[in-house]
Design a protein that fits this description.
Strand content: 15-25%
Shape: globular
Number of helices: 23
CATH superfamily of the largest domain: Aconitase, domain 3
Structural class: alpha/beta
Strand order of the largest sheet: 6-5-2-3-4-21
Number of domains: 3
CATH class of the largest domain: Alpha Beta
CATH topology of the largest domain: Aconitase, domain 3
Length: 679
């Protein structure tokens, strides 16, 4: 077993502290509590004096652990090194999943990544060893799947430097995405400060059937809440329908809660979570959770009268839910599959599918892969294969080894699929795509979580549509959005094929998981002997210097570098893809600043007019030149500015290049915090 820190003793200590703090808060409030409130108030730094006022008061919380992925961990660890500490104050892990470029297949891609990124990996591994951090090597798995398998536990609190950290809410954990500066605070022993969230209750009734999957629950909820409807709120699920969804299915739903802007999403502890805990070698933690069930669900009065305790209540009947497809360009543009062909014609979308992709932190569990393989197996039996390139990304070493043992990988290979590394790959833009030149309009379908322009393949002309893994595989058979693959007859070599709904998949494998943690490196036994590797003159890593302090004077005569039109997500402000290699070098990464942002005056992305010279150039060059002239500047956005990823580079880059303020109608939660943290 990996030397994990979520041991029974650790979890029991969390429950003991939570119970003691809740006793104090209950004495103050004298009312029933939601599950969200139990976890929040159970982690208050000072339960006696904390001001409690949803949407107004800021809470100081003491999370139980921190998780970081390799792209954001670089800047977080560079900041942590300035704190002068010998080790992190809470259990922390680093997971290498973002820097692996999907190109030809798992083994070759991982080997290439290790060589290409050896300097960054050496820094992350040495810093982890030096500061008492668990380190997961490239190829070990996607951060959120590995966390679910090893570290998450019901009723705990975790922050992570990745916006999809709420994945652990599927195991009843309050898990929230943050910027690196917030993580550094907690790693240094300071509280995590966060606006007390409002509460959105989602009541689930009925039971999923047919082609409907857990993914469709969150796609439907995104349709209801939109991409900003959950901002500064926690989505808490309740109702009899919860028990019909597996633990990893719940994780899919809470994972994509990041897309409606929620601080996090969480399910109450139930038998499905217990099954998963026991299947992943954590029976003792399941026993503890069972003995502390009162801490791990809302008080009974909440379900009896939810409108009294939640600021908003949404109800979804799982029995009537249809499979959905969302997109393009935004994850809240949802349609039932039955409406997609008409929408394709009405909007002029390219109907032919150029690629289908299954995986990501949202949908790469054993259950996900099993359901997808069932569709592929049925098609093979009927003499059909994938019509388009199909890429499969397992979530972890454990998932990969288990689906290999159970014959699922051979099904996909016979079906014509390519199995990629256990990593983020195309979901984060790490995809070397040679079949579709940049600027070529085309359509892809995937089981990912975000579909902003250029996010997956660097091509702003690619239309990305999101669905469940089984629906994605069905579309790979159909090859076109003009066919409803779950209802229509699909032409195959002069005949037709109608796909059946995949049978219910086992949430855990019948033979158990093949435990794999070969990529885990425990912290050094003598950390004081470890030297952290940062090469002088590196173009990948750069030691940080604190930004200049405010001089106390008002800002005046500020130039406007950018007025953004429409969406200005963190992908627009600081794209990933080819730029991921510079995430540890603040000066080099700043060359991508606003490269995806659309100029409100010209409609062109990435360029504007220099306010002094009048020359049209890239926004980053304008900002760098103004900084050289000693001129400070601002950027102007629209609504929900900074939506998307937790990457703090989108806040650090403007500050590094001389920006002093961002003006917008509204901000996404994580990005607003990141801007404030960077001054």
């Amino acid at each position: 077993m990996a030397a994990i820190e979520s041991t029974p003793e650790f979890v029991n200590a969390v429950y003991t502290r939570t119970r003691a703090r809740l006793e104090k808060v209950r004495a103050r409030l004298r009312r029933p509590l939601t599950l969200t409130e139990k976890i929040l108030f159970g982690h208050l730094a000072d339960p006696d004096r904390a001001q409690l006022d949803p949407g107004k008061a800021y809470l100081e919380l003491k999370p139980d652990r921190v998780a970081m992925q390799d792209a954001t961990a670089q800047m977080a660890l560079l900041q942590f090194m300035l704190a002068g500490m010998d080790r992190t104050a809470v259990p922390t892990t680093v997971h290498c999943d973002h820097l692996i470029l999907a190109r030809s297949g798992a083994a070759a891609d991982v080997a290439r990544a290790i060589e290409t990124n050896k300097e960054v990996y050496a820094f992350l591994e040495s810093a982890s060893a030096r500061y008492g951090i668990g380190f997961w090597k490239p190829g070990s798995g996607i951060i959120h799947q590995v966390v679910l398998e090893n570290y998450a536990f019901p009723g705990g609190m975790m922050i992570g430097t990745d916006s999809h950290t709420p994945n652990a809410g599927g195991l009843g954990m309050f898990a929230s995405g943050v910027g690196g500066a917030d993580a550094v605070d907690v790693m240094s022993g300071f509280p995590w400060e966060v606006l007390q969230p409002k509460l959105i209750g989602v009541e689930l009734t009925g039971k999923l059937s047919g082609w409907a999957a857990p993914k469709d629950v969150i796609l439907k909820l995104l349709d209801i809440l939109t991409v900003k409807g959950g901002t500064n709120a926690v989505v808490e699920f309740f109702g009899p329908g919860c028990a019909s969804i597996s633990c990893t299915g719940k994780g899919t739903i809470t994972n994509m809660g990041a897309e409606h802007g929620a601080t996090t999403s969480v399910f109450p502890y139930d038998a499905r979570m217990e099954i998963y805990l026991r299947a992943t070698r954590r029976g003792a933690i399941a026993d503890l959770a069972g003995a502390n069930r009162d801490l791990l669900a809302a008080d009974p009065e909440v379900a009896a009268n939810p409108e009294k305790y939640f600021h908003r209540v949404v109800r979804i009947d799982l029995s009537t839910l249809e499979p959905h497809l969302v997109g393009p360009h935004t994850p809240d543009l949802a349609r039932p599959l039955s409406e997609v062909p008409a929408a394709v014609k009405a909007n002029g979308y390219p109907a032919k599918i150029s690629a289908a992709l299954v995986g990501s932190c949202t949908n790469s569990s054993y259950e996900d892969i099993t359901r997808a393989a069932a569709v592929a197996r049925e098609a093979l039996a009927a003499g059909a294969k994938a019509r388009v390139p199909l890429l499969i990304t397992p979530g972890s070493e454990q998932v990969f080894a288990t689906i290999e043992r159970d014959g699922l990988l051979s099904v996909f290979r016979d079906f014509g699929a390519t199995v990629l590394a256990n990593a983020c790959g195309p979901c984060i833009g790490q995809w070397q795509r040679d079949d579709s030149p940049k600027g070529t309009p085309n359509t892809i379908v995937n089981s990912f979580n975000r579909n902003f322009p250029a996010r997956n393949d660097g091509n702003p002309s690619t239309l990305s549509f999101i669905a469940s893994p089984e629906v994605v595989v069905a579309y790979s058979v159909a090859g076109s959005l003009e066919i409803n693959p779950v209802a229509d007859e699909i032409p195959v070599d002069g005949r037709t094929l109608r796909l059946s709904p995949p049978p219910p998949a086992p949430e855990v494998p019948e033979k158990g998981f093949v435990f794999k943690a070969d990529g885990y490196v425990a912290p050094a036994e003598k950390p004081e002997r470890v030297a952290v590797n940062v090469r002088e003159g590196s173009d990948r890593l750069q030691l940080l210097q604190p930004f200049p302090a405010w001089d106390g004077n008002d800002y005046a005569d500020l130039a406007v570098v950018l007025k953004a039109k429409g969406k200005c997500t963190t992908d627009h402000i600081s794209p990933a893809g080819i730029w991921l290699k510079y995430r540890g070098h603040i000066d080099n990464i700043s060359n991508n600043m606003f490269s995806g942002a659309v100029n409100a005056f010209t409609g062109e992305a990435g360029k504007g007019k220099h306010p002094v010279t009048g020359e049209v150039m890239e926004f980053s060059k304008i900002a760098r030149d103004l900084k050289g002239r000693g001129m400070r500047w601002v950027a102007v956005g629209d609504e929900n500015y900074g939506e998307g990823s937790s990457r703090e580079h989108a806040a650090m880059e403007p500050r590094h290049l001389g920006g002093v303020a961002v003006i917008a109608r509204s901000f996404a939660r994580i990005h607003e915090t990141n801007l404030k943290k960077q001054g």
